[in-house]
Amino acid sequence: MNYTKYTLDVPIIYTQTAIQFSIIVSNLQPNKMAYISVSLHDEMGSVIDNWFFTLENEDYALWQSDDYLIQWVRNKL
After folding, report:
1. Global pTM value
2. CA-closest candidate to residue 34, choices 25, 42, 45
3. Sign of the CA dihedral 24, 26, 28, 33?
4. What was the pLDDT predicted at 1?
5. Do the Cβ atoms of 72 and 60 come closer than 8 Å?
6. Hey, which end of the chain has fewer CB within 10 Å, N or C?
């Protein structure tokens, strides 16, 4: 089956709470930028949402450790 979006007859409303996040760095361009994929996880560890950021310019220049990247993502969220 093709990836197609179908309209619901009645909207489904749900609420989930993220308590953790994980980070994947992709498309790293040394000394320039990196794409950051962040997955939000619920209390069971299941992924409930994904966010995407670009780390570049001064923020990229300041990235010297995992601790910096973790705090940078926290600030974005």
Report:
1. 0.81
2. 25
3. negative
4. 65
5. no
6. N
DSSP annotation of 64 reads: -
CA distance 20 to 49: 11
Sign of the dihedral defined by the CA atoms of residues 57, 50, 45, 15, in that order: positive
Tell me the per-residue pLDDT of 8-30, one tens digit each, with 9 for 90 and over. Answer: 898 888 889 999 999 999 999 99
Instruction: Give residue-wise pLDDT tens across range 56-68.
Output: 999 999 999 999 9
What is the dihedral sign for C-alpha 44, 45, 51, 55?
Answer: positive
Contact 37, 22 (CB under 8 A): no
